[in-house]
Fold:
Amino acid sequence: MEKTRHDSAVRPLQILPATVDDHGAMCAIHVSSILAINGKFYSLAQKQSWAAGLTATGYSKAKDESFHAAKESDGKVRGFSSTRLDQLLALYVAPQWHGQGIGSSLLQQAEHSIAGHGHEKLRLKASRNAEAFYAKHGWITVGAEDYLSRGGLTLPILLMEKAFGGNFVL
Structure:
């Protein structure tokens, strides 16, 4: 269990498998995180297009994904991640909780989970604003591509990898 600080309070935080009851909060975090991205990375129109169509029921329909939620002891969701096979598909933290170690905890859990399933490399498609966060955790940028968002606009994204090899250590 990790201790995080926010508003001068220390609260216990756990990374747990997400339940259907978490999906509404996850959706709200997903949308608010996208819309809060600094305008130097993506325009408002791009961010709105990216967030378009997100619904709580969409997480239930993603049967081949594994979702984890960062929760306080009272059950409030502060962030979430999603993995599939050797891919980190999503990692979002509520904007007001950025910088509290929640994203790092979610990333560590995802890395352990993927490595624990025998994968030697983890892959992700990162938004440009997230590159420094992942690089800080040992990820390398291996390419770039355009992502066609749910709303129909194209966004530049980065392809990143982290090799575990036989010596996976966090």
User: Anything to note?
Assistant: Confidence is low (pLDDT under 50) at residues 1-10. Helices lie at 23-35, 44-51, 56-61, 102-116, 131-136. Residues 102-116 form the longest helix (15 residues). Residues 147 and 155 are 5 Å apart (CA to CA).
